[in-house]
C-alpha cells in the first residue's frame, strides 16, 4: 500500500510538470535588482484565448511551489477547482531578509516592506499585464513566510482572496497586530475571502502552537458570510513536511468549495428543503458566484441539474418543470433534456398534445446510438395513448341512467 501511494504521488507530480513552467525576471525598483519567478501555465493555456485564470503566488520556488502546482493540476483534472496559474518567487538566498520583521515591534522591517511592495505593486501588475489572470488571487507561505502572509490582511481593499499559512511561526504580538486590522470590515466588501492555517503540536514548540491556536480562535470568531476561516491542528502528522503536504489540498478544498459540483453535504444543508423555484434559483446563483469569484465562465454541470431535478418534479405537482426546462434549454440547446422537462410539465398538466410535441423534439435531438433512445421513446408512446384515451372520453356519448329515462317518460 505504501508503495502504491508513493507511485501515485510520483505520477501526479511528474505529470504536473508536463504542463508549461517558464522562468521570468522582473526588474524591481523596490528590490533594486532583478528577481526571478517561476510560472506554471495550466493545460491549454495558450490554446484557450478566452479563459482567465486564478493566480496562486507562492513564497518560494522550491518544494512548496511544487506542491501547489501538483495540487492545482490534480484539483483541476477532478473538476474541484478551476485551472490556475501558479507563481513561485525565487527566495533561495533572500528568504530571511524578504520576510524579516523588527524584533521590538513585530512589524515588517525595511527590507520586508520592500518585498511586500514588490509583491503588491510590481509582481501582481506584471502578471496582470502579461498573463490571462482573473481577479482571484491566493498567497501561500510556510513557517515565517506564513507569518509574512498575514500582513496582507491589513490592506483596506485586500489584494488576495485567499491566504494559506502552512505551519506558521507567528511572531510575538502577532495576535495584537492581526486584531488591529479590524477584519470585520471585510463584511462590507462585495467579495469573498479565505484564511487557512495548519499546524501540528508535535512538530513545533508549545509557545508557537499556543500562539497559532489563539490566532485561529480569534479569526474563527467572525460570523461573516464572506470570510471563511479554517485552522487545522494535525494531531497525528508524522513530520513537518507531511503537515505541509497535507495543508495544500485541505486549503484548496476550502478555497474552491463553491466551484465544485453539488456535493451530498451541500444538497443536504442548502437544497433539499427548498421549493422548486428556490432550487432553480440556487443553482443559477451558484454559477454566477463561480464566475464572479473565480472569473470562470463555467456552464452549469449536468450533474448539478440532475441534483435538483427530483425537487422540481416531486414538489408543487411539477408546476416549475417548464421553468427548469427553459433554463436547461438556454444552457444546453443541443441536448434533449430541456425539451424533456417541458414535455413532462405538459404531461403532468394533462396537455398531452403539447407533451407529445416536446417529447418528439427531445427525441429528435438524441443520438440513435444512445442506448437510452428506446426507453425515451416510451414517453412518446405513453402520451399518445393518454391523448387517445382523453379524446375517446370526450367523444363518448353520455349514457342516461334508468331513473332519468323514467323522469322523461313521466314528463311526456
Give a structural overview.
This protein has 412 residues and is an alpha/beta fold. Helices cover 50% and strands 14% of the residues. It has 16 helices and 8 strands. The protein has helices at 2-16, 63-77, 95-98, 110-130, 144-149, 174-179, 206-220, 240-255, 264-271, 276-294, 302-314, 321-331, 337-348, 352-365, 373-395, 402-411; strands spanning 20-28, 33-41, 53-58, 85-89, 133-142, 162-166, 193-199, 227-233. An 8-stranded mixed sheet has the order 1-2-4-3-5-6-7-8, sandwiched between helices. Helix 6 links the parallel strand 6 and strand 7. It is elongated, with a radius of gyration of 30 Å.
Summarize, please:
The protein is built from 16 helices and 8 strands.
Key attributes of the depicted protein:
412 residues, elongated, eight-stranded mixed β-sheet
* Order of helix and strand elements from N to C terminus: HEEEHEHHEHEHEHEHHHHHHHHH
Find the structural class using helix and strand composition: alpha/beta
Helix content range: 40-55%
Classify the beta-strand content into a percent band: 5-15%
Q: Could you describe the largest sheet, including whether it forms a barrel?
A: 8 strands, mixed
Instruction: Give the strand tally.
Output: 8
Number of helices: 16
What layout of secondary structure does this protein have?
Layout: H1 2-16, E1 20-28, E2 33-41, E3 53-58, H2 63-77, E4 85-89, H3 95-98, H4 110-130, E5 133-142, H5 144-149, E6 162-166, H6 174-179, E7 193-199, H7 206-220, E8 227-233, H8 240-255, H9 264-271, H10 276-294, H11 302-314, H12 321-331, H13 337-348, H14 352-365, H15 373-395, H16 402-411
Parallel strand pairs: 3-4, 3-5, 5-6, 6-7, 7-8
Antiparallel strand pairs: 1-2, 2-4
Helix pairs in contact: 1-2, 2-8, 10-11, 12-13, 13-14, 14-15
Amino acid at each position: 500500500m505504501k508503495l502504491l501511494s508513493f507511485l501515485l504521488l510520483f505520477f501526479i507530480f511528474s505529470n504536473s510538470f508536463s504542463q508549461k513552467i517558464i522562468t521570468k525576471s522582473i526588474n524591481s525598483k523596490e528590490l533594486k535588482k532583478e528577481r526571478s519567478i517561476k510560472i506554471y501555465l495550466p493545460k491549454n493555456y495558450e490554446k484557450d484565448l478566452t479563459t482567465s485564470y486564478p493566480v496562486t503566488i507562492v513564497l518560494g520556488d522550491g518544494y512548496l511551489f511544487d506542491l501547489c502546482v501538483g495540487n492545482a493540476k490534480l484539483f483541476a483534472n477532478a473538476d474541484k477547482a478551476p485551472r490556475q496559474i501558479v507563481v513561485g518567487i525565487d527566495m533561495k538566498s533572500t528568504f530571511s531578509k524578504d520576510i524579516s520583521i523588527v524584533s521590538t515591534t513585530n512589524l515588517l522591517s525595511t527590507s520586508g516592506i520592500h518585498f511586500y511592495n514588490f509583491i503588491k505593486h510590481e509582481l501582481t501588475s506584471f502578471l496582470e499585464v502579461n498573463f490571462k489572470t482573473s481577479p482571484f488571487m491566493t498567497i501561500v507561505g510556510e513557517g515565517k513566510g506564513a507569518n509574512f502572509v498575514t500582513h496582507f490582511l491589513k490592506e483596506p481593499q485586500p489584494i488576495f482572496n485567499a491566504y494559506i499559512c502552512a505551519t506558521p511561526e507567528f511572531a510575538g504580538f502577532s495576535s495584537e497586530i492581526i486584531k488591529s486590522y479590524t477584519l470585520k470590515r471585510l463584511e462590507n466588501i462585495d467579495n469573498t475571502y479565505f484564511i487557512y492555517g495548519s499546524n501540528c503540536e508535535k512538530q513545533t514548540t508549545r509557545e508557537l502552537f499556543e500562539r497559532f491556536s489563539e490566532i485561529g480562535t480569534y479569526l474563527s470568531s467572525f460570523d461573516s458570510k464572506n470570510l471563511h476561516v479554517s485552522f487545522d491542528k494535525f494531531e497525528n502528522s508524522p513530520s513537518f513536511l507531511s503537515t505541509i503536504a497535507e495543508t495544500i489540498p485541505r486549503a484548496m478544498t476550502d478555497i474552491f468549495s463553491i466551484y465544485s459540483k453539488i456535493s451530498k453535504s451541500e444538497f443536504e444543508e442548502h437544497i433539499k428543503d427548498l421549493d422548486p423555484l428556490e432550487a432553480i434559483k440556487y443553482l443559477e446563483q451558484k454559477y454566477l458566484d463561480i464566475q464572479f469569484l473565480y472569473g470562470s465562465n463555467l456552464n452549469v454541470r449536468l450533474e448539478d441539474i440532475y441534483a435538483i431535478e427530483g425537487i422540481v418534479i416531486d414538489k408543487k405537482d411539477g408546476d416549475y418543470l417548464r421553468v427548469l426546462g427553459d433554463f436547461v434549454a438556454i444552457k444546453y440547446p443541443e441536448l434533449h433534456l430541456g425539451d424533456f422537462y417541458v414535455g413532462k410539465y405538459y404531461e403532468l398538466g394533462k396537455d398531452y398534445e403539447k407533451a407529445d410535441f416536446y417529447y418528439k423534439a427531445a427525441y429528435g435531438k438524441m443520438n440513435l446510438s444512445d442506448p437510452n433512445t428506446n426507453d425515451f421513446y416510451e414517453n412518446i408512446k405513453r402520451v399518445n395513448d393518454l391523448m387517445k384515451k382523453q379524446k375517446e372520453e370526450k367523444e363518448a356519448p353520455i349514457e342516461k341512467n334508468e331513473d332519468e329515462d323514467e323522469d322523461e317518460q313521466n314528463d311526456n
